[in-house]
Amino acid sequence: MTAGPDVPGLVADARAAIGAAATTEEIRQVAVAVTGKKSPLAEASRALGSLDAEARRELGRHLHEARAEVEALLEAKRSEIRFDELSAELAASRLDLTEYVPGSVAGPVARGHLHLVSQTRDALEDVFVGMGFDVAEGPEIETDWYNFGALNIPPAHPARGMWDTFYLDLGEPETTLLRTHTSPVQIHLMERAVLDGNLPVHAVMPGRCYRRDTPDARHLAVFHQIEGLVVDRGITFADLAGTIETFTTAYFGPDIHSRLRPAYFPFTEPSAEFEVTCTICRGEGCRTCSQTGWIELGGCGMVDPAVFASVGIDADDWTGFAFGFGIDRCAQMRHQIADMRALIENDIRFLRQF
Ligand code: DAH
After folding, report:
1. Torsion sign across C-alpha atoms 203, 208, 214, 216
2. What is the mean pLDDT of each run of 10 residues along the chain (354 residues)?
3. In angstroms, what is the span from residue 77 Cα to ligand 1's centroid?
4. Which atom of ligand 1 is nearest to the CA of 209?
5. Which one of 103, 125, 243, 336 has the largest count of C-beta atoms within 10 Å of its C-beta?
6. In contact, 296 and 275? CB cutoff 8 Å
C-alpha cells in the first residue's frame, strides 16, 4: 500500500498561499491553484479510485473536509481584500466635511466685514441723516426716460455722450438701459411725492451705476454714487453751498473744505462742480490734484424747471437743489488709495486693511 496524500500538508500549503494574496486578481489565481482541476486537492481526489472501499471512505472524508476548509479560507480572504480595496477607494474620494464645521474641529471661523465701499456708503448716509435727509433707493435698470428724458436730456442731446451706457433688450416697448448715474432716482422720488401729496423732499440716494468706460486709476465701469435732492419752498443756491460745505467737513474732517465752480448739467440751472481740498497734500498742491490743491468730487446745482415740469411740480411754488458724487471716489480720497481698481479686485490683503 502506497502512502496516502498528506492532507494536512495540502491544507497548510493552501492556507499559506491564500494568506499571501493581497488583491482580487491574486486571490483569483490562488483559488485556481488550490481548488482547481490541477490543484493537489483535485489530484488527491483522483487517486481515490485506486483505494479499497474503507480507505476510500476514510480519505474521501478527509479530502472533503480539507476542501471545505480551503473554500472557507478563500471566502474569508476574498471579503477581506474587497473590504481593503473599498476602504482605499473611499479614502481616496473622501471629502472632509469637518473642515467646514464651525467651532470645535477646525477652530473658530474667521469673521469677515463689510467691503470698504459699503462702509463708505454707510458713513456717507450717516452724515446726511444727521443733517435731516432721508435715504432712498431706485432701480439699476432704467428706461431711457428716467435716465435721460425726464432729466432734460432729450434724444440726440450732446450731453448723452457723457453718459454712454449699456442698453438692454428686455423685449419692452421702451428702451431700457443700465443707469449711468443715480440722478434718475430724483425723478422716482419726486413722482412719488407728487402722487402721495407729500412734498417737500429731502433725501439722499446711494446706489450702483454703470458706464461704458475703460477702468483706470480713477474710473470703474461699475461704480457707486450718492445723489442728493431737496425740494422745498424758498430753497436757494446758498442752501446748496452750505449743505455741501457742512457735508465736506463732517465727512473728511475740519481742515477739508469745499468750493463750487461753474459747470453745466442739463438737469440743473445754474450748475456747479464741487471740489474739496486735496486730501493727499491738504491743499498745498501735489501731483494727484495737478498742483491745484483741489479735487473734483461731483456735480450739483438748482433743479432745472424743465425737470420739475416732467414730474408735474410747479416751479413757481417750489425750488430745489441736487447733487451727486462718487462713493468709490470718496473712499479713494479718504483712504488715499492710489488705484481705484483695487476696490473690485477682491484681493483679501487689500480689503482686510479697512
Ligand atoms: N449725475 C451727474 C453725473 O453722474 C452728477 C450730478 C450733477 C448730479 C449735478 C446732480 C447734479 O444731482 O445736480 O455726472
Report:
1. positive
2. 76 94 93 92 87 88 92 94 91 78 64 94 98 97 96 91 87 91 98 96 98 89 97 98 97 95 97 94 88 94 98 97 96 90 94 93
3. 81
4. 4
5. 243
6. yes
